[in-house]
Design goal:
The structure holds two protein chains of two kinds. By secondary structure, chain A is of the alpha+beta class. Helices cover 30% and strands 33% of the residues of chain A. Chain A has three helices and nine strands, in the order ααβββββββββα. In chain A, the strands form two sheets. In chain A, strands 2, 4, 5, 6, 8 and 9 form a six-stranded mixed β-sheet that branches. Chain B is α+β, with helices and mostly antiparallel strands. Chain B has ten helices and 29 strands. In chain B, strands 12, 13, 14, 15, 16, 17, 18, 21, 22, 25, 27 and 28 form a twelve-stranded mixed β-sheet that branches. In chain B, strands 3-7-6-5-4-1-2-8-10 form a nine-stranded antiparallel β-sheet. The longest helix of chain B has 32 residues. The relative contact order of chain B is 0.11. The chains are: A alpha+beta, B alpha+beta. The interface between A and B is medium-sized, with 26 and 25 residues.
Chain lengths: 176, 489
């Protein structure tokens, strides 16, 4: 009897845990996390960095944008290849969602999670709570995805060395 | 016999006549130069000793960049090389040499003129940038460096100058000159005795090793779509720790001003302010407790908050405007001859030049410990209702100083340690939050600095660092920095 009770409690606890996870997932609307969500024009926020897909040698990366509209919320997500979904991603100050302030400007530093391609999604909408209204890309929701590729520092060094070798070659050919 | 006596009388009259003519000349001289009816010793001294009011000080004394900024290029930190830094002198000596070459066209090639936006491209490259607080005209540059400039130095002055040691593939040095409205590019050989490519690289490597506070520049992140204009090279903090440590600053009214009440103390003060001429002035303390030294043509008023006001009271000849360098020379002599009034550890830099119809206005500001001291709408405690925006404001022509406001303060490091938020994003929000109605579309940024602001006070003040954002018109926005309180403190 005791064993049955314990196993029932364990099953119950396990189910609760699963539900909590499911509820947590539900916190973020599907339109944010779904990789198939359509890209929109930058009609709420102009993203100034990244400007399209970018390549960098630094793990630390700064996202920037500005808006001439009031009461805009921005959310940052990063693509997870294992789940096939975008997931909320925190900047170095520990926030994945923020409201644009009085200047109409935001600048957030993130640590790129891995070498190679990092797919970053920035979504923006009016108001402070995404659950208040039905968000529709292009109507009241801006969705933009960028790929920021983090290269090894050794690549930079070899480019530098290569450039130096070319200039040295030119010096040998044409004199200093 | 009668004839001889008459001759003697005539000769005596002639002598008297000569004496009268000479004394009348002296009197005219006194009236012209001093409007002072006392013994004309100074007038005669001036007559025989022409050097007294001539150039006494080296005009190059104030010719220093406001700051030097070094970077390896895009995505790399920008380091500020302050006057106290070990590389400041060698880099500035180098730049002075290249400015001389530019002015005298010594072996240089002009590689084109670009619009002002191009300056943003320049500062994203590996560069050593020398910034002045105002555009220094060709005439002033020539006077500072004591060279004869070529008549067609295209930029007409230097506001900022960048040395790019490794841009040119032929191992020449590249110089960009920005005058505030356009950018000119020049190529010239490296100075034989100066720094070479490797030396510049070594400086950058050592700055990496020093690991000092680095900055980013606006151009790396912010677009101008929403704002009127953001200077691409404005230094900002976008990466790394949000908080940096600062110290407070204590600002005092100089004791000499605070404690001047008796006639002996007035005499001592007069000697400092007026030098050898101190006995020609009436000295008193007026009903508003202001120290006043006055004669018929000059008036000095020293307010109890440390403000020195000078006015030339006689008629100004509009033909005396003269050249900018002559006028600046007069202004610098006025300051340097009263050097004793400047607090130890304070540097003075030229912060502005206004060319008026009949005279020039030069403004100077203080730096203490490499950090600027700012005044914004500093109230003058008199009926004029004027406000000051600079530590020293001098109206001057080629002959004399006409008006001057000079805030005399003593500074010393405070004991308070402060952790202040230096991130651009928060600063930018706070500017708009603190200035309601500020229109984003009309907002511009020329420069951003962390400064200490001095406000009107006759007492000691503890100053905390604040943001000072200057727009393109020179208006300053002073904004409080966000402070992190020490835990458990």
């Amino acid at each position: 009897m005791m064993k049955k009770m314990i196993s029932l409690i364990l099953v119950f606890m396990f189910s609760i845990c699963l539900c909590v996870n499911a509820l947590a997932q539900n916190d973020v609307p599907d339109v944010f996390v779904n990789k198939d969500t359509q890209e929109t024009e930058q009609f709420l926020v102009t993203i100034t960095r990244p400007e399209g897909d970018e390549t960098t040698f630094k793990e630390s990366y700064v996202l920037c944008g500005n808006s001439d509209k009031e009461n805009i919320t921005v959310k940052l997500l990063m693509y997870n290849e294992l789940t096939g979904k975008f997931e909320p991603f925190k900047n170095i100050d520990g926030e994945d969602t923020w409201q644009i302030g009085a200047s109409g400007f935001f600048m957030k530093e993130i640590k790129l999670p891995k070498k190679g391609a990092n797919k970053i999604r920035i979504v923006a909408y009016k108001g402070s709570n995404e659950k208040d209204v039905v968000l529709k890309p292009g109507d009241n929701l801006q969705v933009n995805t960028f790929t920021v590729t983090l290269l090894e520092k050794s690549v930079k060094d070899s480019i530098k060395r290569g450039f130096l070798r070319i200039t040295d070659m030119l010096n040998v050919l044409f004199g200093e | 016999m009668v004839y001889v006596r008459r001759l003697n009388r005539e000769r005596f009259k002639l002598y008297i006549l000569f004496l009268l003519v000479i004394t009348s000349f002296i009197q005219v001289g006194i009236l012209w130069y001093y409007q002072n009816q006392r013994v004309p010793t100074n007038f005669l001294w001036d007559f025989f000793n022409k050097n007294k009011y001539g150039t006494t000080y080296n005009i190059g004394y104030f010719f220093k960049p406001y700051r030097i900024v070094v970077t390896e290029g895009y995505e790399n930190p920008h380091w500020v090389i302050d006057e106290g830094h070990r590389y400041y002198s060698s880099l500035w000596d180098e730049a002075r040499g290249y400015i001389s070459n530019l002015l005298t066209k010594k072996g240089i090639t002009h590689q084109g003129e670009f619009n002002r936006e191009y300056w943003g491209e320049v500062v994203l490259k590996k560069s050593f940038v020398f910034e002045f607080k105002t555009n220094i005209s060709t005439e002033l540059l020539a006077a500072f460096l004591n060279v004869n400039p070529d008549s067609d130095f295209k930029p007409g002055g230097i506001y900022k100058m960048a040395i790019l040691p490794s841009e040119n593939i032929n191992r020449n040095i590249t110089i960009y000159v920005y005058n505030g409205s356009s950018v000119n590019k020049y190529i010239m050989p490296f100075e034989q005795k100066g720094l070479h490519i490797n030396d510049y690289d070594n400086i950058i490597n050592e700055l990496y090793e020093e690991d000092g506070d680095g900055y980013n520049i606006v151009k790396e992140f912010v677009s101008n779509y929403v704002y009127d204009y953001l200077s691409p090279d404005a230094l900002i903090v976008a990466k790394g720790n949000s908080y940096r440590e600062f110290k407070s600053l204590v600002c005092n009214v100089p004791d000499k001003i605070k404690n001047t009440y008796t006639s002996e103390e007035l005499d001592d003060m007069a000697k400092i302010i007026l030098g050898e001429d101190h006995d020609e002035y009436m000295k008193n303390i007026d009903v508003y407790n202001v120290i006043v030294f006055q004669n018929l043509s000059n008036m000095y008023r020293i307010y109890r908050d440390g403000l020195l006001e000078y006015r030339y009271l006689y008629v100004i000849d509009n033909n005396d405007k003269g050249s900018e360098s002559e006028a600046l020379n007069k202004a610098l002599n006025f300051i340097k001859s009263r050097e004793e009034l400047i607090s130890p550890g304070v540097d003075i830099y030229l912060s502005g030049i206004t060319r008026n119809q009949n005279y020039y206005t030069f403004t100077f500001d203080y730096k203490f410990g490499d950090r600027p001291i700012a005044l914004e709408d500093y109230k003058i405690n008199n009926k004029d209702g004027k406000n000051l925006n600079h530590a020293i404001t001098i109206d001057v022509n080629s002959k004399r100083v006409l008006n001057c406001y000079w805030l005399l303060k003593d500074f010393e490091k405070g004991n308070e340690k402060l952790n202040l938020n230096v991130k651009f994003e928060y600063m930018f929000d706070d500017v708009f939050a603190a200035n309601e109605g500020l229109d984003r579309n009309e907002f511009s940024i020329r420069d951003i600095n962390i400064v200490y602001e001095v406000k009107y006070s006759t007492q000691s003040q503890v100053l905390k660092p604040v943001w000072c954002i200057e727009n393109m018109e020179g208006k300053k926005y002073i904004v409080k920095m966000r402070e992190r309180l020490e835990q458990g403190g």
